[in-house]
Amino acid sequence: MNIHNCNLNIWAHLPDESWTKVANIYKSMPGWLGYTGGIPYWYGQETDEMFITASVEPSGLSFYAQMEQSEWDSWIGRFKAEATRVLGFEVGEPEEGFE
Question: Within 13 Å and on the Cβ side, how many CA atoms surround 66?
Answer without folding.
Answer: 9
